[in-house]
Amino acid sequence: MALDARDATDRVDQLIVLTDRLTALMAQQCQAFEQRRPQDAAAQMEELSKLANIYRHESARVRQAPALIEGAPLEQRKRLMQATEAFDAVLARQGRALEAVRTVTEGLVRAIAEEVASQRTTGAGYGPGAVTQAGDARAITLNKSA
Questions:
Q1: Which of 60, 65, 107, 130 is an S-S bond match for 125, by CB 3.0 to 4.6 Å?
Q2: CA 23 to chain centre
Q3: Per the domain annotation, does 26 fall within a domain?
Q4: Beta bridge partners of 134
Q5: For residues 144 and 118, which has the higher predicted lDDT (pLDDT)?
Q6: Is residue 22 in some structural domain?
Q7: Is residue 42 domain-resident?
Q8: Residue 112 and residue 108: Cα distance in Å, rounded?
Q9: Total domain count for the chain?
């Protein structure tokens, strides 16, 4: 999906609206992660994905053909740059929030794996004199690259 702009001024206006909406949605998502409520972040995921895809597509088009926005007034292009800077700041904030969520999640998985391993026993023989030893957690795999 692409923007349907009449001229450079219209395209810049649409890009500003798109960037502002994307920034607002991402800020809400960041706030949800920071408040440890990821389920709230999921509520806007569909719209966020669609807008992010349009933004990615339009940014690439403008990078390849700067003439698409060069005809817009300088003041309007400055507003677009400010909107883009705000978006970049929220994007960095989201990156930090997602990294924190990933760290917490990995810690939980590790703690659960260690608890399962500590409670698992293996038999080292049969009969009344058999010895049991704590098992290991080889059956539980941790993906450190996730």
A1: 130
A2: 13
A3: yes
A4: 121
A5: 118
A6: yes
A7: yes
A8: 6
A9: 1
How many angstroms separate the CA atoms of 82 and 89, rounded? 11
Q: Could you tell me whether strands 132-134 and 121-123 are parallel, antiparallel, or unpaired per DSSP bridges?
A: antiparallel
Identity at 70, one-letter amino acid code: E
- Residue 77's domain comprises 8-93
Distance of alpha carbon 105 from alpha carbon 122, whole angstroms: 29
C-alpha separations of 45 from 30, 42, 82, 98 in Å:
12, 5, 24, 14
At 80, the pLDDT band (50, 70, 90 cuts) reads very high
Residue 84, domain member (yes or no): yes
For the cut 80, the answer to whether the pLDDT of residue 2 exceeds it is: no
Bridge partner list, 123? 132
**Integer Cα distance of 86 and 73 in angstroms:** 20
Give the mean model confidence (pLDDT) for residues 41-51: 89
Of 56, 45, 64, 44, give the one whose Cα is nearest residue 18: 56
